[in-house]
Amino acid sequence: MARRLLAALSLAGLATAGVAHADVRDPRPGRWSGGAGVGFLANSPDGPEPALAGHAQYFVTERLSFGPLVQYAGAGNDVIVGLSIQARYSWSIFASGRAKLVAQGGIGFVHARIKDADSGAEETDSSFVVPVGVGIDYAVTDRIAVTADLILNITSLGGDVPIGDREVDLHTNIMPGLYVGVRF
Q: Where are the beta strands (DSSP E) in the chain?
């Protein structure tokens, strides 16, 4: 599953790179951009998980863009997949236009297969997700920018799972994600 997601993100990146504007510092309206990152998804129902994120964005103005965000955590004993539609707004930090502060928010859904290693409890659940976050986007070259994003995934994922004569709480409300990556 992880290989398929990585392959899909790679293909999406290659596809959007061809139609993206040649200069990541100059996102003109009507252009596409994409990116991917690696990091961690904390406070999942079974603890922190290594994660991948990928996004595409369509620029409506030079500062405002919309597009999908995919988050995947599955290297541990849980599998969590989130898909949302994001709005992203950016501000140039320096006069050179190389560094930008990015605020984002969106709405979507998250699906999880949770296996709690401590109790042996298992659950499959789906819920809404409202990812809101902030990040830094720094143009290293005209075609590639490095990114760092902190995303708070607000959700109602998981629940109480009966194990014998007790219940195990696999519920979470906020799953912070921290990703470093590239945008092209």
A: 32-44, 47-59, 64-73, 79-92, 99-115, 122-139, 145-157, 160-163, 166-169, 172-183
